[in-house]
Specification:
Length: 238
């Protein structure tokens, strides 16, 4: 992070539950840069330096800014035609004070015709966009891609580390604004009512494994998990 030492104002750029240390600021700056440039970042920091919280605040700050940037770009595209018309009208009103009436009238009519032509062109482009979107809507994969939002996945080796990470997110400045789910265990993912009702994690694990076994080499479907059978019988898509 040597090149980042010259930068200042990192603590104000990244919301943090307390005054971050320099190593945390450097971590967040480097992480933000990697995300913003679409690169792969490999970071290392000593134990006890608050890597999880730095990762949370750095990544979620980028996500917040990214979504805000997309909203601003969409607003500019929507406001573009109206602002152009207002600018032309304002220009015509100022020129009318210094030109003869017939010149001002000619200029105004020409500007109005230009605006009408531009609006017609934009309407034609809009219809073409709608036609292309209609074609896209019939494609399931593209339809899914259009609805997909930018997501952040945090992976860890143990369930306890995932639980700790969720706790860190909840107590971070973004805790109230971020939705997250722990995809960490049968307790969170299992949808079999017979397993879910047990509630105890160890009992759920034991029952799930028992329902997946093929006793005596024979398929006893009445003892197997119906959801596992459903997945096993579903054709794979490659």
């Amino acid at each position: 992070f040597h090149w980042l030492r010259q930068k200042t104002g990192a603590s104000s750029r990244f919301p943090f539950p307390f005054q971050p240390y320099h190593i945390q600021e450097s971590f967040m700056e480097a992480l933000y840069t990697a995300l913003d440039q679409g690169k792969v970042g490999i970071f290392e920091s000593p134990t006890g330096t608050g890597k999880s919280l730095s990762l949370i605040c750095g990544a979620l700050t980028w996500l917040r800014n990214y979504e805000e940037q997309k909203k601003q770009e969409a607003a500019k595209l929507q406001d573009g035609p109206e602002k152009k018309c207002d600018a032309v009208k304002e220009e015509n009103s100022t020129s009318q004070t210094s030109e003869p009436d017939w010149v001002s009238e000619f200029v105004q009519k020409k500007a109005e015709r230009d605006i009408v032509n531009k609006l017609k062109d934009e309407e034609l482009k809009r219809k073409k966009r709608e036609e292309r979107l209609e074609v896209i809507r019939h494609n399931a994969q593209l339809r899914y891609a259009m609805k997909r939002k930018v997501s952040i996945y945090y992976c860890s080796r143990t369930h306890s580390q995932l639980a700790q990470f969720v706790h860190e997110v909840q107590k971070s400045p973004y805790g109230a604004a971020v939705r997250l789910v722990n995809l960490g265990s049968r307790q969170n993912l299992c949808i079999n009512p017979e397993v879910v009702r047990l509630r105890n994690v160890q009992m759920m694990n034991d029952r799930c494994l028992e329902m997946q076994k093929n006793k005596h080499g024979q398929k006893r479907h009445h003892n197997l998990c119906q959801f596992k059978l459903l997945i096993s019988n579903h054709p794979m898509i490659t």
